[in-house]
Amino acid sequence: MGTKGFEAMDIESSNGLASKAANALSPTRTRMGVLVVALILGVLFVVLVVSFAETDSIRVDPNLPPSVAALMNTNVLPCTDFYEYACGGWLANTSLPPDRSSYARSFTAIQDQNDELIRSILDEKWPLVSELFDSCMNTTMLDMLGAAPLRPDLDAIRATKTKDELLALIGALSMKSPTNFLFPAYIDVDEQRGQTMVLHVEQGGITLPDRDDYVNATRFAKLDVPYRSMITKLMTLAGWPEPKSAADVVVPFETKIAQAMVPKAALRNPQATYNPMSNISGTFPSMDRVFRGAKILLDDTTRVIVATPAFFQAAEALVTQTPLDDLQTVVAFQLVLATSGGLAASFRNATFDFFGKTLFGLQTMRPRHQQCTDKVNAHLGELMARYFIQRAFNRASLGSIEDLVGDIRSTFRGRLERNRWMDDNTRAAALSKLDAMTQLVGYPQTRDDYPVVLDRGDYFGNVQVLAQMDHMRAISLLNTTVDKTKWSMHAHAVNAYYNPTFNQIVFPAGILQPPFFDADADAAMNYGAIGMVIGHEITHGFDDQGRNFNGDGLLKPWWSNDTAAAFEDKAKCMVDQYAQMPVYGNDHTTLLGMVNGELTLGETIADVGGLAVAFQAYAVRMKKASLNGKTYTASDTLDQLFFLSFAQAWCQKATDEHLHVSLNDVHPPGKQRVHGAVMNNDDFARVFNCPANAPLNPTKKCRIW
């Protein structure tokens, strides 16, 4: 158990009790929108840039940096397909690595660069992180041990005589292993009371990425056989009795769980998922037994926030109806799966065959040293970030970043002041919320303690020790006062987020480096890259989720009925518009699905608003300041450079399988993000001279901020 961090499409999940953050560039329950914008800066050379005139003619403009132009495909009209125009050269010349299901030109490149630095730190034997890394790299020991590290826990599962004993054991196991039974929990702020950390419970218990993978018959038919094969392989390797019948227990059990789950899009309403309850032992006795096993002791007055009460009622019924030996099999499988990364290669190969190859279309595993670097970041991320900051972060850039944030906040404020669809009182409250929004840049000022000893020869044990440490640290926060200096993302993450319960925007050091940000770069590039990220995160404070929280971060109504109705009308325009966007496979003809306009609404609001406010702030800046000593033949070049800098952040190669899974994510794929943001932007249409009703200059534009 931990505290929950907000999502962007985040790849790593924390063990045990998690902590929740806000909106980030990866998927989870975050209200944080993560944007990664990357540019590689260079000296100015003469290159071709296309302007799209109403006659569809091509005009040559010689003033874009070669690093930008090299990524482009100028044979495509920008107002028809800006993604291909901005990224086509890169797409044509880039092959997807066989160990990646997705490769983003900016995000992945910076993350790889950061990982190289992290690897050098690990090689220097810095405390704790090197012990964990070395133990992870010792595959000879892992293979020699086989399933032995797991057997005591599997024996304990089989030894339970009652469901109460098993539920208590599930809680105890969750303290040291990231098991995924029915009651995922984390410690976070009480959204309506604001000052106290309380227990939150969310629906869980499935192995496949989304409930639709079970309830959609077509999708499930593709996954059923390979999923069952993995279950059989893992349970055979673990020495579980009758392993071939385990899938016949696990799959129907998880299918019933999925059928009871609330769809992701419906979970976007924070009012609907805020259900404070007490007397958990009387209402959800199975949940209470699991918590007690995990040393989370609740009395009849303890306040617990339950996201989906109907789901947990169904979960209680399922536990009651399922025979004990079937529950033991389900729990054993979840434990084997959760710990397989710390076991012999045969376990890791079995999980890779399904998750890597079948689900995401990977051809090979990542090299072991990269896997182990990821594990260090997952288990000791705060400590690793501390070492990273000592080695890599240029603290002198903090002032420049804060200036950028100030410019964009000021511009956003002006847009609010000029807003005409809000009534006076709601507009005044929105301005107050913006003024109250705090910002954290670079790295946290607080540090965690690590009262543990790790063994270079025991990776499995090390992971359990660290999981127990995180669990007990999280429990210690229960009923304490909120600490708003705590970060929900590690400082070396190439990401950013907005936390609605803190009303706070956060920009880690990992994203504050070239090509995201360079203090010596042109304003157009910085505002198009990190500026759009900043605008995106600010806008999250006023998206479909963020707008429910006031300036103090409390889940309290502050919108008039008429203004709320106007917001919903504008939001529906965006939902309907994005729902018309097809996502095709790499052959450009196979339709994988359509963007989910409801699920992605928070991110699309932030994309459209963030791009608009960043360009306006950039334009104001250019009126005030010189061009940093550089000479350009046309101001249009800089304006185009701004939009190219934005779009090239989302140049992405991905497998069809990855794209299919991403249809159930809160973030649209890169191409759809780019097109959605520019097609609703008047400045884009002006800068590229787009004809009326061009594909990316529709008459009806959808935007809120």
TrEMBL record:
The family database entries (InterPro entries) matched by this protein are listed as: MetalloPept_cat_dom_sf, Peptidase_M13, Peptidase_M13_C, Peptidase_M13_dom_2, Peptidase_M13_N
Gene3D superfamilies to which the protein is assigned, alphabetical: Collagenase (Catalytic Domain) (3.40.390.10), Neutral endopeptidase , domain2 (1.10.1380.10)
Q: Name one GO molecular function term.
A: metal ion binding
CDD domains of this UniProt entry? M13
Peptidase M13 C-terminal domain residues are 495-704
Going by the UniProt record, its keywords in alphabetical order are:
Hydrolase, Membrane, Metal-binding, Metalloprotease, Protease, Transmembrane, Transmembrane helix, Zinc
A Pfam family found in this protein is Peptidase_M13
In the record, the note on similarity to other proteins reads: Belongs to the peptidase M13 family.
Protein name, per record: Peptidase M13 C-terminal domain-containing protein
